[in-house]
Amino acid sequence: xxxxxxxxxxxxxxxxxxxxxxxxxxxxxxxxxxxxxxxxxxxxxxxxxxxxxxxxxxxxxxxxxxxxxxxxxxxxxxxxxxxxxxxxxxxxxxxxxxxxxxxxxxxxxxxxxxxxxxxxxxxxxxxxxxxxxxxxxxxxxxxxxxxxxxxxxxxxxxxxxxxxxxxxxxxxxxxxxxxxxxxxxxxxxxxxxxxxxxxxxxxxxxxxx
Length: 209
Fold this sequence. Notes:
Blueprint: H1 22-44, E1 47-50, E2 53-56, H2 58-69, H3 71-86, H4 107-125, H5 132-160, H6 167-174, H7 179-208
Antiparallel strand pairs: 1-2
Helix pairs in contact: 1-2, 1-3, 2-3, 2-4, 2-7, 3-4, 4-5, 5-7
């Protein structure tokens, strides 16, 4: 059976510890979820430009957290991230936070981070994150998810604001400029996560000696 088809429920977070008690396992899950949310918040503040388009580390964080924590914990981490931002914590890219952030046209993309992390984790649970090519395919698929939610949300909010909304305008504002940055971030995650697995395997081999 190929690595792509055989389910593997073990993700990177699972090698950090194998708690014997249910209470300890839940405490570890909570700690991992909070750490994942904090990592996305940190990477959201990292930005550089490729041409006129800023690339933030936000989506890279979403993919990496989803892959490392698995589908459910990854989605929980991004839900925590979203709620923290809506509560006023400065976790989003840019300076805006609090409930008013939901009125921004870009908020739909943040909503999309939750299922994106789930999808990245789903692929990781099936061992797609162990090899760069499979990881890249899975992470590109996860990267598409925020656009499926974010682009319609963008169109609706622009319409509410009185902007003349056209398909070409929406694509120019919310899709075309972000394709290359999205591929770059998916490629970065597809290099980093399998490399982390390589370190895990090396450590496990040394432990068995």
